[in-house]
Amino acid sequence: MSKKYQLLALDMDGTLLTDEHEISPETVKWIQEAVRQGVHVCLSTGRGFQSAYPYAKQLELSTPMVTVNGSEVWRAPYDLYRRSLMDVSLVRQMHQLAVETGSWYWAYTVERIYNRDSWTDAVEKNIEQEEWLKFGYYTEDDEIRHHILMTLQNMGGLEITNSSPHNLEINPQGVNKAEGIKQVCGLLGLEMSQVVACGDSLNDLAVIQQAGLGVAMGNAQQTVKDEADIVVAGNNEDGIAEVIREHIL
Question: 91-116: per-residue pLDDT in tens?
Fold first, then answer.
């Protein structure tokens, strides 16, 4: 009998990875067993490709990947399928907002990541020459973060999520992990009902809501737990091994 679930979509930080940014031996073992039994395992992350790929390599995955919260979808490692770029004028506005609020910020381009420390006058001058994928803010000041959120919502054209309670992550409107995984399903000839999606933050929410089985980690934000079909052990307690062992194989 064929398995009900054919694709396992894994967020990385706070989900696949422990707090030390490692994959536990137990989790590695069960992911490789899932692959051996014909399950597609797809990394679905806010990270860029260069940061995500070493983990795919460790797991010996040659399957599609979703990076930068869905701004890039890869048929296989180093084989780009689709890329969604941000409006440069919005990037300029978001940078100005970061400066005005004194927040830590970072921004992904196709080539590299900039942050508050590396955003020089030269970057500012050549902003139109870059291909931008994602912008992010970090502040532990709830009022400032709320102000940033309200301002971003008024700009329009943006998809706003987070990867921790203290940050905001911004992609082009309509670009998220759910849309990325739908594209992966298209590449693999699968339906979203055949997907198990695991995550811990708001950038995982859409795909957890739309997957056949939406899984929140034990360490997930409460909103994610509320929307998930099941809640498993945390990222430091081999929650992903639990998913594979009890719900996929």
Answer: 999 999 999 999 999 999 999 999 99
DSSP 3-state of 65:
strand
CATH of the domain at 29: 3.40.50.1000
Assess whether 142 carries a catalytic annotation: no
* Residue 12, Cβ density class (10 Å: 0-12 exposed, 13-18 middle, ≥19 buried): buried
Q: What is the CATH number of the domain that holds 143?
A: 3.30.1240.10
Query: Which two three-digit tokens encode residue 86?
Result: 């941000």
pTM for this entry: 0.97
How many structural domains does the chain have? 2
8 has which bridge partners? 41, 196
pLDDT digits (tens, 9 = 90+) for 239-249: 999 999 999 99
Cα separations (Å) of 136 from 7, 167, 231?
29, 7, 27
Rounded to 5°, angle at Cα 156 from 200 and 97: 80
- Residue from 11, 13, 200, 238 carrying the catalytic annotation: 11
Range of the domain at 44: 7-83+176-248
With respect to residue 2, please indicate whether it lies within any of the assigned structural domains: no
Which token pair is 212? 């056949």
Q: Are residues 142 and 28 both part of a single domain?
A: no
Q: Which residues of 74-97 are buried (b: 16+ CB within 10 A; e: fewer)?
A: bbebeeebbebebeeebbebbbeb
Same domain for 93 and 161? yes
